[in-house]
Amino acid sequence: xxxxxxxxxxxxxxxxxxxxxxxxxxxxxxxxxxxxxxxxxxxxxxxxxxxxxxxxxxxxxxxxxxxxxxxxxxxxxxxxxxxxxxxxxxxxxxxxxxxxxxxxxxxxxxxxxxxxxxxxxxxxxxxxxxxxxxxxxxxxxxxxxxxxxxxxxxxxxxxxxxxxxxxxxxxxxxxxxxxxxxxxxxxxxxxxxxxxxxxxxxxxxxxx
Length: 208
Description:
Blueprint (H helix, E strand, L loop, with lengths): L9 H11 L2 H4 L7 H6 L2 H19 L10 H18 L10 H14 L7 H12 L4 H17 L5 H21 L6 H4 L5 H9 L6
Helix pairs in contact: 1-5, 4-5, 5-6, 5-7, 6-7, 7-8, 8-9
């Protein structure tokens, strides 16, 4: 686990330890975290809600600005805005309430190069709000960033990063086709077009 420092608020450290374990020290986590990252389910959702719910709402409400200057605490803030709401508010509009701020934090980090010293697994989750964006320019950026990670990372990470790039490309294809993610329509009260309805029956599904 990470050791809190004078620049790492305990709440931010708790987020990082919970989601990434030793990943920020090693480059990638020593344990398999796919069930945590991609599995979901009522038990996990309830656990994240109980442990991090107040911090998530604080982040969505525009708080925790003192977490923004340093890349690791900014990453913790992005996790609170992008990943955790999808567990806490699964299938509800509020699952996406942190997306705009998360995407802005990522864009600022990319513009300033703040992301570059971050461990590979940290960069994966820093870039994830771009994958979730219903915006083609953000999708283009996400594919470029995951391609760069794949091209510059060691052999032992190639399988994981190839999978990340594959899903980034799938998300981009959906936004290119529809201008949005049809699988969010029900949660957001949006009416699906006939083409979207057909896609929802047979198209790829992943997360929210």
